[in-house]
Structure formats: structure tokens, C-alpha cells
Specification:
The chain is mainly β. The chain has one domain: Beta-galactosidase, Chain A, domain 5 (Distorted Sandwich). A hairpin with a 3-residue loop joins strand 2 and strand 3.
Length: 304
């Protein structure tokens, strides 16, 4: 643990009664937010929002108790950032799936307590020789997080070069649910999706999404809110978005979760990923000198 670095972060960016920087699991540096509306924790590795819990609610984000918290390892749960590509790299099989943003260090650029009682943090991705090898385009990535009764996350990608580039991205958000058998996902009815479990077959969603086996789907050309209706917790998680044309729904189910090794026994039952992004047909072209923002706004409603 780099104590001087922690001290510097707290001197520059801590906010009394809102925000402090601490050593987290595996020695990772974590920003801990606790304001009048909610609490949250964000690892500087990956600018990874690990937890978010509005006061009076069960945790909204699912974080595995069996996860590997270590430098360079992706964290199982919370909101991993898939950037600057989603899934496998188009041409380099050795490059990491879903890009490198979730496993490299980000720096804190700004923090502030807002007048509405929320807490704002801004992070910047730190480039290295390795990241430049995998992503040679002159660019910058920043993550803007606003923690309150709702959670707003914005990923801003600036093209600093003189040529356009294609960008794939997603917030790979893990949501905590009472039981996967006791929930339904709405908002994607009649959407076309790629079924990755069935060799990327194109299909059309009929009705709400009910999960009873492995699900890995990329829904295309949709800007709609997604709603996780959790009968067990009697709540609806609303996932609104901007700058996104894709939604991904994922649950590994029994066999795949066991092979991954960091879900724990029956961990797959208490989570579902509903991801906001731009993938497959919906990758984004970012012209030179411009920026693209991917935004998700997560809120909780009572399920009547």
C-alpha cells in the first residue's frame, strides 16, 4: 500500500462528511462516498464503481464476495468499464476481452459536493506503453460519477487525433436481485438481439426477459430504459441511458459460473447484468476533434 499516495489523495480530494480515500480489498485504493443520500465505493483501478446503496435500500450493485481483488485483475461485480472495445478485439485475439480500461489505473481529476447533496467524482484513464500498443489512437477517456439517491455514470471519450476511430464500450453493470427466478427484465420487448449462447443468431425478444438458463444477448438499436422488476425485493431498478444504442443482458448460469471460480456457490442466482453500451452493429465512430459520451442513470422504484 502506497501510504504517501493515499495521504496525497486525501489532502487534495477528500470532502468532509462526503468522501475519503482508503485501502480496499487486495490493497486497491478505493474512494469511499457516504453522503445524506447514499453510500458507494469506487476503486481507482478501472475507475470501478464497486458498490452503491441508497439509504433505506438493499445494495443495488452486486459484488462477489469471492472476487479476486488484485492489481491488473478485473473485479467481479459492480460496474466494470468495457473500453475501447466490447467483447473480443476485432483482429488481435491476444488483446484482453472488453478492452483494458477495467484493469488499468485511473487518476482522480476532480471531486466536489454538489448543492443537491450528491457527490461528484471525475477520473481520467492513465495511458501506458501497453495501452498505446493496444489502442494507438490519440484520445482521452474520463469517467464522471455522481453518487446520490440515483447513480449517474458518464464515460466521455475524446478523439484528440486527426482521423476518426471506431469505439465499442459498455458499463458491464452487475445488479443485485433477490433471486434470478423471481425477477423479469422489461423495456426490450420486440428488440432484435444477437444470441451469443446460440452462435450469435439474430432473434427478436418476445415479451419480458425471464432467465432460467445461461443468457448472453446483445440487444441492438435500442435507446429505451431497461427495468429490472424484482418481486422478491419488491423494487424496480430503472436503467436509463444516453449515447447508447445497445443493451446487453447476461447471466452465466450454473456451469459457466462454476468454471469462472469467483462467483461463489449459487452466486449467479443473486445477480443479473444489464449493460448500457455500444456494441456489434452499434459501435460508434468518433470524428477527429470531437467527443462521445456514454451515460447511464440508475434509480430504484417501489414495485407495487
Amino acid at each position: 500500500m502506497n501510504t504517501p499516495e493515499l495521504n496525497t489523495l486525501n489532502q487534495r480530494f477528500a470532502i468532509a462528511s462526503h468522501l475519503a480515500f482508503k485501502e480496499g480489498p487486495g490493497g486497491l485504493i478505493v474512494a469511499e462516498v457516504a453522503n445524506a443520500q447514499a453510500k458507494a465505493s469506487i476503486a481507482l483501478q478501472g475507475a470501478h464503481v464497486m458498490t452503491w446503496q441508497p439509504h433505506g435500500q438493499e445494495p443495488v450493485l452486486w459484488l462477489s464476495h469471492f472476487g479476486k481483488f488484485a492489481p491488473g485483475k478485473s473485479i467481479r461485480g459492480g460496474v466494470p468499464i468495457c473500453w475501447p472495445w466490447f467483447g473480443s478485439h476485432a483482429s488481435e485475439a491476444a488483446f484482453p476481452g472488453h478492452g483494458f480500461a477495467r484493469t488499468v489505473m485511473w487518476e482522480v481529476l476532480e471531486t466536489k459536493a454538489l448543492d443537491d447533496g450528491t457527490t461528484f467524482l471525475r477520473f481520467g484513464l492513465i495511458e501506458t506503453a501497453a495501452t498505446r500498443t493496444q489502442w494507438p489512437h490519440p484520445s482521452s477517456a474520463q469517467l464522471l460519477v455522481t453518487v446520490g439517491a440515483t447513480l449517474k455514470i458518464e464515460l466521455a471519450t475524446h478523439n484528440l487525433g486527426d482521423a476518426p476511430f471506431q469505439l465499442g464500450e459498455a458499463f458491464h453493470t452487475y445488479f443485485q436481485i433477490s433471486d434470478v427466478a423471481d425477477m423479469e427484465i422489461k423495456g426490450l420487448e420486440n428488440c432484435t438481439y444477437l444470441d451469443k449462447v446460440d452462435n450469435f443468431s439474430r432473434k427478436t425478444q418476445q415479451g419480458g426477459i425471464v432467465i432460467g438458463s445461461e443468457v448472453d444477448r446483445v440487444y441492438l438499436d435500442t435507446e429505451a430504459d431497461c427495468l429490472i422488476e424484482d418481486r422478491g425485493l419488491k423494487r424496480r431498478i430503472r436503467i436509463a441511458k444516453h449515447g447508447s444504442r445497445s443493451a446487453v443482458v447476461w447471466n452465466p448460469w450454473i456451469e459457466k459460473a462454476e468454471k469462472m471460480g469467483d462467483f461463489g456457490p449459487e452466486g449467479y442466482r443473486g445477480m443479473v447484468c444489464v449493460e448500457t453500451g455500444n456494441a456489434a452493429d452499434n459501435v460508434v465512430t468518433v470524428p477527429p476533434g470531437t467527443a462521445h459520451s456514454l451515460v447511464t442513470v440508475i434509480s430504484v422504484e417501489t414495485l407495487g
